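Hi support team,

I'm opening this ticket because the web form for multi-chain structure prediction keeps timing out on my end. I have pasted the exact lines I submitted so you can reproduce it. The total is 812 residues across two entries, so I didn't expect it to be a heavy job. Is there a limit I'm missing, or should I split the entries? Thanks in advance, R.K.
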Amino acid sequence: MNPTMEIFSQGEEIVTGQTVDTNAAWLSQQVAQMGFTVTRHTAVGDKLDDLVGLLREISARADCCICTGGLGPTSDDLTAEAVAEAFGLPLEFDNVAFEQIKLFFARRNRIMPELNRKQALFPKGSERIDNAWGTAPGFSLQAGRCWFAFVPGVPMEMQHLFLETIKAGLQSRFSLKPGKLISIKTIGIGESDIQERISAVDIPAQVQLGFRAGADEVQTKLWFPNGYPETAMATLITTVASQLGDYVFAIDGLTEPTGDLAAVVDKLMTAGKQTLAVIETASQGLLTAKCIGAQWLLRTMYEQSLGRLGDKLAVEINADDLMETAQALAAAMQKSSAADFILVQLYAGDNTALHDKDKSIVLYNALLTGAEFHQSVHSVAGPIKRKQNQAALLALDLLRRCLQHK
Amino acid sequence: MNPTMEIFSQGEEIVTGQTVDTNAAWLSQQVAQMGFTVTRHTAVGDKLDDLVGLLREISARADCCICTGGLGPTSDDLTAEAVAEAFGLPLEFDNVAFEQIKLFFARRNRIMPELNRKQALFPKGSERIDNAWGTAPGFSLQAGRCWFAFVPGVPMEMQHLFLETIKAGLQSRFSLKPGKLISIKTIGIGESDIQERISAVDIPAQVQLGFRAGADEVQTKLWFPNGYPETAMATLITTVASQLGDYVFAIDGLTEPTGDLAAVVDKLMTAGKQTLAVIETASQGLLTAKCIGAQWLLRTMYEQSLGRLGDKLAVEINADDLMETAQALAAAMQKSSAADFILVQLYAGDNTALHDKDKSIVLYNALLTGAEFHQSVHSVAGPIKRKQNQAALLALDLLRRCLQHK
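Hello R.K., no limit was hit. The queue was backed up. Here is the completed structure from your submission:
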């Protein structure tokens, strides 16, 4: 049996819905991968009685609990006080923490407000978790059955403290038997098509198969229990992936995380030292924005009107053959651009079809690499946001396919 | 005292962190506006004992509870069973629900799988909540102190059922005294500067003041209790907003929601029937993508190299006076574009400065409206994602200021 973990989030902004609690999901993914079974998430506001009651409940119910929020300097930050009351531990002033807090302000040329003094108070017997990322140190302690770690609710600070301190603490305290989660990430193929292709594969009962369809990709997930033989695992992953062919743009869980399609393309383009120029239409800047920060993206154009786009590049538009037109535009762009590759995205159907959720558009992508043309054609339906996002992804995916299969 | 509300989310995908629970935040915002006090969010997986225990806890603790998830057809969808066990209510087959489920499949030319029959079983004494948006009907019932409503976890279905059925049910069951939340939304000014400007305003003790800083905007929030006099409210809002001057791009809570900066610009551009062409550099397509779907955006260009941008538009680049260069580029773009307005964004500092989180860049925005130039200059620091996002927003904000103050 895996040890159980609960996630506890404190803050009025969470219970009132002003903030979506992304910390709980992030922490759960982390600890599930380590071999914990996450049994419950709870969020409460800043009422002392609620906090005290909940801490006592959890201390009797879970092996471990990570709590976020309530460590700030103001009167509604009650976590340390609640822990003290729940478990009958007096608050003690920690000089080291106090020096750290003062230093945080001094480094920013600011005077520490008197309020922040409170952040150096910890329940007796707790261990301080130093925070180089903000003013609030965290702390951990054992209470009843449960080992608690308390960290700030600011996601960036929480993530650093988890990865740099808490994770090691958990590994030394618990005997963990992590399984392995593999995500095969695809683009351009739907969940039901994936299921059909995979149905041919014999998946052992102890391996859990799952799917996760997002706006940008579909993930086929294989969860292997602890101790599953490495070679059998590798064979099964390869078999499933090969059923999905080159819809697969990345496999997560083998080594480091691969990121989304744009991250995969970024890695390939950077490795190949190639540069790109883009003409986008349906995706209206979204393709460019998905490559944000990419050094290899030299120039992009968006033009609402296909006619004006043709005028600008002195290309005759042939509405009956948009692929030919896309190729002509790519050739024209190549002359005026320093980029190695030219990617052109056109679509059939006018601006009205793009906006009408009941109409589909047909996308024509042409990629010019030196003297060679690559192309793809897709039909995309749904609300404009979906169409534009798919248009950006599918053009980028044509580039990915060429780069991966060269 | 407001009646208390808890939100209960069921699903392994939530406790394992595969899905961020956005339902809890959405529902909390809705019911807080109606006059409930949300006291707790809880998420558990699909273990029957956990569900039963939690339902009993809540029935003794809260006046009302909305539960999402666990109404699907598969064996891990246990909500109805858990309710039956928790409160000793046998499950009863509902013929009307069964017909609805069959119809859902018939309309899609599919045969109803036998599994879905289960979705027509409800705990005795519960009231069905018809679902025109999916296969799973919801249900509601009183148990102990608490009125429960159970709805599917698919956000779109949940939102429809809440707005179309549950909301009215809550209003008829509870005597609600909603307060009023006003959000004054600003861009280009930080939270501490806002606090300093507002410190001059005398805010009555019964009005709660709060701040919320996001990547795209800072919100100054005023929460007025039920029965607060309308004129005093209007005066206070105007006073606070005037302290923030034209950093304010929208005020939420007065009539319908205003949306983000791009939505505000979209409304103004559409109302004025103007069109726009854009040259963006630092924001690399993000500005264009923020206006996604906008009919008034005719053309945009991104060019990584300022030299190549100058060549393309036959404009001499003056690195010592980027505002002059931006204006010259706008004038050149105006000649070759059909757009009414031309917005040009340049920045001082090279691509390396853009990528280095310890270096700042200076943004030069020029907007040409007919024969008139408008301009803004900003220094932006931080990681590239922040710099690029701010670059997109601040250029768009120059456009917003001109449109609002004409």
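A quick check on our side: The mean pLDDT of chain A is 92. Let us know if the file doesn't open in your viewer.
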